[in-house]
Amino acid sequence: MPQTFADPARPGPALRAQDLHVSFGDLKVLRGVSFDLAKGEGAVLLGANGCGKSTLMRALNGLAPVASGQIWVEGQAIVGAPLRAVRAARRQMGYVFQQFNLVPQLSAHQNVLFGAMGQRPLGVLGVMNAFARAEDRERAMACLDRVGLADRATHRPAELSGGQQQRVAIARMLMQAPRVVIADEPIASLDPKAGREVLDLLWRIVEEEGLSLLCTLHQLDLAEEYGRRLIGMKAGRIVLDAATGSVERAELDALYTGAARVDAAPEGVAA
C-alpha cells in the first residue's frame, strides 16, 4: 500500500519532499532534499543555474526519476506508488512553465480546455471543442475571464503577446483545478513589466483560491516581494529555508557564489 501521512485526521502539508536523491549517471544532482509546503503557502525557490532547482521541479512532476526518497502530494506518496495513485495525486498539481507550452494551431480557449484532460476518460479527445462538454467549454471561458483574456478566446498563441500567452497557461492551470501549483521560472521569457503583471496575477489567484505555490525565480527583488518564504538551493542541497522577512540579502547573494553547481561540489563536501 502507498504510504500516507501518519495521522490522516491531522492536516498535513500540501506538498512534502523527503530526502530526495536524483542522479544522472555519476552526477548526483539532488543530494537529500527535504521540505514541506503548507496548504495555502506561497514559497519561492532560489539558486544559481546548475544548483538542482529544475531537477527538483521535474522530480516533483514526475519527469525526473527519483533514486531514493519520497514525495507526498496532498498526503499521497507517489514515489513507487501504483500508477493509478500517482495519476490521482498529480491531478492535484498544476504547472506553469517558462515556456508556455501552448498548442500553436489551437485557440486560447482550446488550449485552456486541455487543462481538463486528466479529468475526462477520453483524454485529449474529450477536451477537443467538437467533443468537449458544454460545462467544460463554459468553465474554460470563465478561466480566461479570470486572467483578463475572455476577449482573446479565439486568438491563437502567435496572435498574443508573451505575457498574454503566459496568462493563457495560467488559465489552463486553473482549468485543471489543482491544489498545488508548481511554477518554474514563469517570467523568464517576459519583459519586466509583463513579468510583474504575471506574478501579480499568479499570486492573486493562488491566494484567492487557497492554493499552495512553489515558484522558482532568479530575480531576488521579486522573490523578496512576492514570496512569504524563501527556499535556497546550492549544489543539490537546500541550504536556506526561512520566512522572507528574516533573510538577509547577503544570505541570498551567497546562493550564487562559491560552489553553487552540482558538478562543482562533490558528494560529501559541504556546499
From TrEMBL:
<dbReference type="GO" id="GO:0005886">
    <property type="term" value="C:plasma membrane"/>
</dbReference>
<keyword id="KW-0067">ATP-binding</keyword>
<feature type="domain" description="ABC transporter">
    <location>
        <begin position="15"/>
        <end position="260"/>
    </location>
</feature>
<keyword id="KW-0472">Membrane</keyword>
<dbReference type="InterPro" id="IPR027417">
    <property type="entry name" value="P-loop_NTPase"/>
</dbReference>
<dbReference type="InterPro" id="IPR003593">
    <property type="entry name" value="AAA+_ATPase"/>
</dbReference>
<dbReference type="GO" id="GO:0016887">
    <property type="term" value="F:ATP hydrolysis activity"/>
</dbReference>
<keyword id="KW-0547">Nucleotide-binding</keyword>
<dbReference type="InterPro" id="IPR050086">
    <property type="entry name" value="MetN_ABC_transporter-like"/>
</dbReference>
<dbReference type="GO" id="GO:0005524">
    <property type="term" value="F:ATP binding"/>
</dbReference>
<keyword id="KW-1003">Cell membrane</keyword>
<dbReference type="InterPro" id="IPR003439">
    <property type="entry name" value="ABC_transporter-like_ATP-bd"/>
</dbReference>
<protein>
    <submittedName>
        <fullName>ATP-binding cassette domain-containing protein</fullName>
    </submittedName>
</protein>
<dbReference type="Pfam" id="PF00005">
    <property type="entry name" value="ABC_tran"/>
</dbReference>
<dbReference type="InterPro" id="IPR017871">
    <property type="entry name" value="ABC_transporter-like_CS"/>
</dbReference>
<keyword id="KW-0813">Transport</keyword>
<comment type="similarity">
    <text>Belongs to the ABC transporter superfamily.</text>
</comment>
